[in-house]
Amino acid sequence: MRDYGFGCRSEKQENMVERQVQDILDVLRGRRLDADVFKNGCALVPNFFCHIFLNAFWKMFCGDTLSHEDHAFTKHLVQLGFGFQRSTDATGLALGITPWLRYIAPGKFGIRQMRLSNGKMIESFQKSIDEHLETYSEDHMRDFIDIFIREMKSRESDSEDIQFTVEQLIVVGLDLLLPILTTINATLGYLVHYLVRYPHVQRKVQQELDNVVGRDRLPTLDNRPRLPYIEAAIREVMRIRPIIPLGVAHRAMEDGYLSGYFVPKDSM
């Protein structure tokens, strides 16, 4: 995954994000009006940000970019992502701690909505994976799916290898897609909310950008070390409005040791 910008900088990926940001700025400046992200002349947040991050991910994972004509598909995926997230609770999912609750009150704990949203997202990935399997070429790696398929084919003789399968590829895709559809967009939505609510902070953010970057270009990761106030503002928003306030519950799957202490199976 490092070939596509994970754990390292990727000029190709950064250029893709920059083009998407520029596209958003064009919309804000009135050069184009997208009905899916505007209502009564106002941008719908966080819907407004969804296309930029989904496009960067889709290019890395599936090799395609989504045009603005694909807004219906983008909107559909975003709705599924938020539907999945809203079916959980503040702890990350009570059913992860007490799974037997799904038999008592499945509607109360979001299990039905979760399965519906999850199933439709799986269908989206399955369609793209099927297309890749039909057009796969060992000599031309187009994206992450192709690289995964190559690894999967190299292990076909190992009947006990369960790490490289189509099912596992879908799980990897979901693990990457859900934060892109929900966490990042929701965090940016809260950031906009607090910048509007506290205009003096907004002015300081703008001043730092003007001093370090100027108004003739977009900021890059090279500018990040010189933008401490903006970094602090983002982190403060994430502190005030965490997406999962109580964190994701964890449970020990097997007996083990941590720093010399015995941790029995099923410990919370």
From TrEMBL:
It comes from the Eukaryota. InterPro entries: Cyt_P450 (IPR001128), Cyt_P450_sf (IPR036396), Cytochrome_P450_fam2 (IPR050182). Belongs to the cytochrome P450 family. One of its GO terms (cellular component) is cytoplasm. This is Cytochrome P450. Keywords: Heme, Iron, Metal-binding, Monooxygenase, Oxidoreductase. The keyword Metal-binding applies. GO terms for molecular function: heme binding; iron ion binding; oxidoreductase activity, acting on paired donors, with incorporation or reduction of molecular oxygen, reduced flavin or flavoprotein as one donor, and incorporation of one atom of oxygen; steroid hydroxylase activity. Pfam families: p450 (PF00067). GO terms for biological process: organic acid metabolic process; xenobiotic metabolic process. Its cofactor is heme. It comes from Diploptera punctata (Pacific beetle cockroach). The lineage of its organism: Eukaryota, Metazoa, Ecdysozoa, Arthropoda, Hexapoda.
